[in-house]
Amino acid sequence: MPIKLFLEYLSFEKKYSIHTITAYKNDLVSFQLFCLVTYSQDIEYINYSQIRSWIVLLVNKGITNRTVNRKVSSLKTFYKYLQKIKQIDKNPLSKHQALKVAKRVQVPFSEREINEVIGQLKSQDGFWSNRNKMVVELLYATGMRRNELIQLSLKDVDLSNGTIKVLGKRNKERYIPLLGSVKESLKIYLQQRSKEVLDFEYLFFTEKKNKLYPALVYRIINEYFSTVTTKVKKSPHVLRHSFATHLLNGGADLNSVKELLGHSSLASTQVYTHSSLRKLKEVYNQAHPRSKKK
After folding, report:
1. What pLDDT, on a 0 to 100 scale, did the predictor assign at position 279?
2. Which of 81, 189, 224, 272 is catalytic?
3. This prediction's pTM
């Protein structure tokens, strides 16, 4: 029952996405099973040493520290909720230290790689190639998340004002300006789209006239960028990372990039600054008079 109430709280009060709620549910149900099998206790009566034994079990199974930290974070949020509703007095994870993880360095696509992919798609005929081009262009031109792209509806596109409305995490809306070239691409796409489907809410759809789904968006990005880059990771998120990095390289301030990305804090945006700092160092070393002296 506490898990069910917690998931309802995440859905109705916190407005979390179905994907996020499912992740919480899986973590909590898995831990609940461990509690019952190992200690014959419900999840709300477990203490920190018992949670530690679960963490050790996960690590011994070869689960990465990053994944373990995510699972423990789910528990911590759950116990905070139990405190809030006065079901427990103390959060057993209040003093827990997260496991150390290696920092993941995201390598953005270069401007050349992105332009090559868009150029490839422009040279291909047909509505579906144009849909794929529009997917690539919008992800890169706006920095929106994959799920935000999937949820776009026709009414979110305002060509007259040159903006697009995006529904972000926790149902927060934001408006992103559209580049002139993207507006023109959208006009052409919408004209072609009207010949393919009528009375369909979402901006993008599959050949079976269904809404796009995450695996398809990933496949579009991965397949096209595999032809122009040897980078290991080729995903919609790398396009989002490229958007932020290229803006910062071009002189955009961090606060503006934060708003465009839909981040709630600057800390989330600062992860994108390492690439722009590297570029800044190159410019600095080339331009500063002292850099030429031995």
Report:
1. 57
2. 272
3. 0.68
